[in-house]
Protein: Integration host factor subunit alpha
Amino acid sequence: MTKADIIESVYEKVGFSKKEAAEIVEMVFDTIKETLERGEKIKISGFGNFIVREKKSRVGRNPQTGEEIEISARRVLTFRPSQVLKNALNLSDMVQPPV
Structure:
């Protein structure tokens, strides 16, 4: 599913114009992005948590040469699905065979 698909779904289900649906979806994504940029956690009940983690710098190895290199510190985004989402995914697997 793409952002355009999400906009189309909001348009069909809520009844806003396509322009309004696009603006709402953009605002939601912008809010999520800005919150994550500040390093804050996002909890969406029944869906899951988006968490920004700090990774320390560490020594890695070039697999071709064996040379040690430093991997710089960085922030990574992780997603932990809620139990409700996990259950919904597993229930849908039981109802419909995978394609």
